[in-house]
Structures are given as C-alpha cells and as structure tokens.
Automatic annotation (TrEMBL):
GO CC annotations on file: TRAPPIII protein complex
Protein name: Trafficking protein particle complex III-specific subunit 85
Taxonomic classification: Eukaryota, Fungi, Dikarya, Ascomycota, Saccharomycotina
Species this chain originates from: [Candida] railenensis
Compositional bias (Polar residues): 452-474, 697-706
Cross-referenced InterPro entries: TRAPP_III_complex_Trs85
Region annotated Disordered, chain positions: 452-475, 687-706
C-alpha cells in the first residue's frame, strides 16, 4: 500500500491558500493617470494598469526575494521569523465601496419588485452574498474544459479543486462584522516626472473627504506613496529630494520604484512571466473570460521584476508589519486590558442586567425614531447591523483580526472568545456568527501550526511546485478528553449556530458554505498533523454533505462540477482515514519493505500461478471501499461532462479496491455498471486521440526522412 494513496490536494496547501488569500493584509491602491501610463510604456502594454502590475507581487511566497524573512513580534514580545508574509492589493477604498453600494442598491430594487410589502428588518437587504453559486459553477466548467484540453492528467484534479477552494475564500467585499477586507494601508502611486506634490495632496484630500461607512475606522489606515521614476532620466538626487518633500509637506511615508521606460526586450530569456489573475474573484475571472482579454500573464523584464519584489519586501517589513504591531499594542493596552479587568467585567454584568428591558425592545422591530434611545444602551445599530467605529466592540474585533493576520492564533482565539459574549448580549447575531466562525478557524490554525526545521523560521510558507507538501508530525497527540472538548464544546455547537444565523436569519448561504469548506480543510490538516483521522472523519463527512445540500438547493439542475469536486473530496477524506497510530503504521511499512528486500536478495523463483496471500496488514483499518464509492460518483459526474482526462486521473484512486489496469471478467466490469462503462469510455477516448495524432506523426516522420 502506498502511504500517499489516494492522491489529491494536500490539506496543508489549502491551509496556506487560506492564509494567503483571506487572512492577509489588504492594501487599497489608487494610481494617478500618469502612473498608469508609466507602467504601460515600461511593459509595452496599453491594457495594463499599475494595480494589475503590482497585484501578483503581493504574494511574496511565490514572487520572493532570495533569503527574505519577515520578523513579527506578538503582544508577549516574542519575536518569530517567517519566510513569507503575503499581502493583497485591491482597488482603492472609494471604488470598493462604490461597487458594494451599487450591488446593494440593485439587490434592494430586486427585492422590492419581488414583494410589495417592505421587510420589517431593513438591514438584511444590505448584507450581500459572498459569491454567486451559479457564477462559480460556470467558471469551474470553463476551467475544467481548459485543463482537459491543455494539461496532462498528472495534477489536473488538484488544480481544479484548488481553484474551486481559492475562489470561494477570495473576496474583497467590505462588511461590518469582520475587518479582514478593511484596508490596512492606502497606497497612492504617482509618476515623479509628471505628477507634483499638489497633485498628490489633492488625491489624499479627496480620499479623506470621501463618505466612508460609519463602521470603518479610517484613523487606523496607513497612508503610503509609491513614487515611480525612470532611472535613465534626470538625477537620483532630484528623486530623493522629492521624496523628502513629500515626507516634510504631507507627513506621508513613501517608497521609490525605479521603473525604466522605452524599448525593453520582453521576449528574451531575461523576461519573467507574471500572472495577472492572482487573488482575483469569481466576477473578475468571468469578466476577463467574457471580454476575451487574451493572455492571463504579463511579460516583465528581469530587472523590473527584481526591483518590485525588493521594494515591496521593504514596504512590508518597514511599514506594514510595524504599523500593525503598534496598533495592536495600543488597542491591547487601552481597550482590551480594561475590559479584562474586574471593573470592566462588573460594568459588563451591570449593563446586561440593568438594560434588560431596552435590549429586549431593541431586538424587536421598531420605527426609526426609537434608534436614538436604543443607542444610549448599546453602540450597535439594529437598523443597519453594525457597531460604530468608535465602539470598543468594533475595535476589539479589529484587534483580534489583525492578531490572526500576524499569526498569533492563540491570542486571537482568546480575544474572539471574549468579545463574542458582548455580541451575544447585544443580540448582534451576524457578529456572533462571524466571531464563532473565526473562533473555530483560529483554534484549528493554532492546533495545526508547525515549526520549520530552521529554529528561527516558522512554518506558513508555500513549498515550491512539485515538492512534497506532507508536514512532519512535531507535536504529541492530545488525549480523548481534549478532542472531546474541542469537538463537542466548540466546533459542533459554534458551527450549528453560525449556519442557522447565516442561512435562516440573514439568508447568506454563501457565508455558510465558505465556513464549512474552511472547516473541512483545517480538520483534514488536524487529522494529518495529529494522526487522528478516526476522530474527525465523520465530522468532515457531515460538513461536506451540508455543502452538497446547499449547492443542490441553489442550482436548478445541480452543479455538476461542484458536485464532482465535493464527491472527490469525500473520497480523499475516507482514503486518508486510517485507524492506526503513527508508530504502528511505520512499523508495518518497514516490515513490508524488509520482506520485499529479502525476496529480491535471495532470488527466489515465484510461481506465477500460485495464489498469494492477501495483504492483511491494514485489513479493517482503512476505508478504501467507501473512498472508492465516492470517487466513482465523482467519475460519473465527469463522464457526463465528457472530461475523460479527469476520469483517468480519478480512476487511479480506486486501485486498492478494483482492478483498473484492464477489463476483467469481474462483476464490476460489466457494460451496464459504472466502472465498466468508465473503462470503456477511456479506451474509446484513447483510441480517438491516437487516431487524431497518428496522421500528424506520420507526416512529421516523412518530413524528417526527406
């Protein structure tokens, strides 16, 4: 038995994508027209903007500087070094808010036309879905078709499922109940040769005068400037003087980016290919496909590529991380510590008891005139479902989110658990649901965090492509009582409550789907990390069933690609479920290897007609048959889509239960059964491909002969 069987997306790769695409700093970018023109002339591409150019480089786990390290100090003054710290570049904050408001207005108009009576709770209409399920199915069908036409079946399924998971967790929607998509920094990009300080001042003033939501804390935003210049034009001292004037006159820090313009060879070996769909949402990908914008990559010269990576590395290390650390320390001292004190707890209890009547009244529908009297008892706005930006509840939530971004998972969990009680007392149900979700996430991230072989570097870095992503087990397996407390006291009740809130209270089914898929991948990580798949497998199965049910309820004909991917993940989960300890597993594998070596060394003659003993080392300790069942159901969906390369990939994962090498006389190879039908389809597809390739190969052979 192969210890890596069955094959599929490694859960730790999904964990890294979760940290990179969801729980990472969001940076909003606003570039001047001259800055965009500067980039277009440098790349010889009139269709690219500065944001599109800089966005891929935010993933410094992929586009890294040699030997880069990021130093992060937590609230206990413990410093850790990380090999990567990705950031997400997005549209400027006013543009993001304008898109959100336009979608909200459209949703309200549709709901108003659908029903004549206005809803009693007007706040529900302002909360939009995280993503469109039908759009996701459409995008996945397109991606699966592209992969089947271009790629081989080696990593086909892994790419499709990873794309599916990444698109679900990737979002730039601003919501009041979590701050992961609230920008940490606002970057203004200007051109040194054509923009002046007055132009920059106008950009900053217009930005600060924008009508931001009342829950957004603009005072915590780090303002920064990227100054683009051509090193071949003018002198460097003029650029440095301009940078100093920006700091002196506007009190804004800046970073210089030397990007030459003119004729640059982007077709030679020195050119670097950079993907432009890094961290893109479902809507952005569909728009790019519908407009047929050609290549999904940019050609960048090696010198510009190295320069931008170094400048962003400097920007993160010198500005982003220190800014977040400083804010966390300030919030911890001024807001969180007083709340943890005895006096703070006393006032919390007194608020709960002495404001009982007002709280109960606020939970029921009331006219707008009563909102002012309610705000005296609580800072939560029940009409629009948000806490004011100056409230301690909003600040503490932001403190916990930033701590999670800085990978202080235990501190983040304790902070979430503390503020969740205040949300419950105020009946801020959407805040409660979101906090319960991140409580589970931070707990599982802390349980699956592992140390690198280098004592100075921590994990959470993406391994290079093609490298094994299996993580070594470095911690002892907790006892059953710890497992029972984590599962029955935290994960299961929290998950049930947040699903009820998202689906029944606010009709946000997509948020529940995202939470379930994140829990599944982190539980798979926990099963691998602590070799405890026997404890979590039924919970993973339950959550995947709920995801399938949610998708089936939304799509009329059912999502074939989504259903196939979830069936495949069920097969992967059961295939990795082994009722053995790590030591016993390794002993059995080593014993089998010794037996094989002895047979080879002695050179014994093996009778090919002799009935060999069955391998009973793992009999009854695996769930390969149930895993094969789910893989066959996934194969059925791909057969309907005529994606035979995907079928050929998945069929390799049932070889421990069935003979997949050839058609046999076994019952499962009958014409009217699924496996036999799949085998025959693969044979016909292979013959069809050979017939198409054959004439071309013959012509090529004749040309070579002449």
């Amino acid at each position: 038995m192969d210890i890596d069987y069955p094959s599929g997306l490694d859960p730790y790769a999904a964990r890294q994508h979760l940290l990179h695409h969801t729980y990472s700093p969001l940076i909003s970018v606003q570039a001047s027209h001259n800055a965009d023109l500067h980039i277009q002339r440098s790349l010889n591409n009139s269709n690219v903007s500065f944001l599109q150019f800089v966005k891929p480089y935010g993933n410094n786990a992929r586009y890294s500087v040699p030997g880069q390290t990021f130093k992060i100090t937590n609230t206990q003054l413990i410093t850790k070094l990380y090999p990567s710290f990705p950031i997400r570049f997005e549209l400027s904050l006013p543009e993001l808010l304008s898109i959100t408001r336009a979608n909200s207005s459209q949703s309200q108009s549709q709901s108003a036309s659908a029903s004549s009576a206005k809803s009693s709770n007007a706040s529900d209409s302002t909360l939009l879905p995280l993503f469109s399920i039908s759009s996701l199915e459409l995008l996945l069908k397109h991606r699966a078709k592209e992969k089947s036409e271009v790629d081989t079946a080696g990593d086909l399924d892994e790419d499709i499922y990873l794309n599916f998971f990444t698109k679900i967790i990737t979002s730039n929607k601003l919501v009041p109940f979590e701050t992961f998509n609230h920008p940490i920094s606002q970057v203004f990009a200007i051109d040194f040769h054509n923009d002046t300080i007055d132009d920059l001042r106008k950009l900053i003033v217009d930005f600060r005068n924008f009508n931001f939501p009342k829950f957004f804390q603009i005072d915590d935003l780090l303002i920064h400037v990227f100054i683009l210049y051509d090193p071949n034009v003018g002198e460097s001292k003029d650029v440095i003087e301009f940078q100093n004037n920006v700091k002196k006159l506007l009190s804004v820090s800046s970073t210089l980016m030397a990007i030459p313009q003119g004729q640059i060879d982007l077709e030679g070996e020195s050119a670097v290919s950079v993907t432009i769909n890094e961290n893109s949402t479902i809507e952005e990908d569909l728009q790019r496909i519908s407009l047929s914008q050609g290549s999904e990559s940019l050609k960048v010269s090696h010198s510009i590529d190295l320069m931008i990576k170094k400048r962003l590395y400097e920007y993160i290390n010198k500005f982003i991380i220190p800014h977040m650390e400083k804010k966390i320390r300030v919030w911890d001292d001024s807001v969180l510590s007083p709340k943890k004190s005895i006096t703070g707890r006393f006032f919390s209890v007194s608020k709960l008891f002495f404001n009982n009547n007002s709280n109960s009244n606020k939970s029921s529908p009331e006219p707008q005139s009563s909102s002012s009297s309610n705000s005296a008892a609580s800072s939560f706005n029940y009409q629009e479902n948000y806490y004011h930006k100056s409230s301690p509840e909003q600040t503490i939530r932001k403190l916990a989110d930033w701590s999670l971004i800085l990978k202080d998972f235990k501190y983040a969990y304790s902070t979430y658990d503390l503020i969740k009680k205040d949300y419950t007392n105020d009946k801020a149900w959407v805040y409660v649901a979101s906090t319960q979700e991140i409580c589970i996430v931070s707990l599982l991230l802390a349980q699956t965090q592992q140390s690198n072989q280098n004592p100075n570097l921590q994990e959470d870095s993406t391994p290079p492509p093609g490298a094994s992503q299996q993580q070594p087990i470095t911690s002892a397996v907790p006892d059953r009582n710890t497992f029972r407390k984590i599962r029955h006291d935290i994960i299961e009740p929290y998950c049930d409550n947040l699903l009820y809130t998202f689906k029944s209270r606010f009709n946000l089914r997509s948020y529940g789907i995202k939470a379930l898929l994140v829990f599944v991948e982190l539980l798979l990580c926990l099963s691998m990390h602590q070799n405890s798949s026997w404890w979590w497998n039924d919970l993973i199965e339950k959550y995947l069933f709920k995801c399938i049910d949610d998708f089936e309820r939304h799509l009329v004909n059912g999502g074939q690609v989504i259903r196939a991917l979830l069936f495949e993940r069920l097969g992967y989960s059961f295939g990795k479920c082994v009722y053995l300890g790590q030591i016993e597993t390794m002993r059995l594998v080593e014993r089998r290897q010794r037996e094989v070596k002895v047979e080879v060394e002695e050179g014994m003659y093996m009778n090919p007609h002799k009935i060999r003993n069955r391998d009973v080392h793992f009999s009854g300790l695996t769930k390969y048959k149930k895993s094969s069942l789910w893989y066959l159901l996934s194969i059925r969906e791909w057969l309907e889509l005529k994606n035979y390369k995907q079928v050929g990939y998945l069929i390799q994962n049932i070889q421990c239960s069935f003979n997949i090498k050839e058609l046999t006389n076994q019952w499962y190879d009958r014409n009217d059964l699924l496996l036999g039908f799949a085998k025959r389809c693969l044979i016909e597809a292979k013959e069809s491909d050979e017939s198409k390739v054959g004439p071309d190969q013959n012509d090529q052979t004749q040309l070579e002969g002449t």
